[in-house]
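User: I'm writing a tutorial on reading structure tokens. Could you give me a worked example: one chain, its sequence, then its tokens, then a sentence or two explaining what the tokens reveal?
Assistant: Sure. Here is the example chain.
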Amino acid sequence: MRRNSCIAALGLLLCTGTLTSAGQTTVSQQDSSLQSAQPADDRNCWGVDIMASDGGFGLGVFYRRELSPDLSWFTTFSVSEAKDEREVEQFDPYTGLSYVPGKLNRFLVLPLYAGIQYRLFREDIVDTFRPFVNAAVGPTIVYSMPFANVTTSDGSVTNVDQVDFFKAIGSGQAHYTVGGYIGFGANFGSVKGSVFGVNFRYYVVTLLSGSLPSTYNLYDGSIEGTKKDFGGVVITLSLGTTF
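And here are its predicted structure tokens:
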């Protein structure tokens, strides 16, 4: 009788231990599921911007900090190409090189901006798609450097030498102004620790000191075109990490 009681007690202890272990495993699995299901937090982050526009390509860096669940402030710095809208790139089938007839100067745009970003529909849309609007303003440098050295004689062009890009940098001149942009976009994904987003921006960058020479007349070498506005639509791909 005593032996049967001991066996029954041992069985009860084994069952209790099994249930306790199963319960702990279930809770652990639930905790892991909750952690993996946590929404992505990309409001405190820094990273790089890859930019594309009609004027060319650019590269930038950004730093963004949360003010509230919907509002963040940020700062950006970037370097991007700009060109005269009248430029037409052509291809020489004999040399295999491309060239731009009449192009006189290259332009780089270097803005240092501070701005705000507001997240839209946070409570209505799944967290893997996070739309926003943003705006920024700040000082901007337009750097003009020679693309070609044009030699004239008796009112006509006698020689045109294209200037190497890296040599042209040392011969350039900086022009200062104020610019900004407004935009909209979205961040994607649910992986905490990384940022992936797309931003469509409209930049307003106008030189206050006047226009810069951009193209020359192919026959007499005189200044034919100038450029004052360096803004426009820019598509930005943002890649970064959160903290």
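What the tokens reveal: The first strand starts at residue 45 and ends at 53. The CA atoms of residues 90 and 96 lie 11 Å apart.
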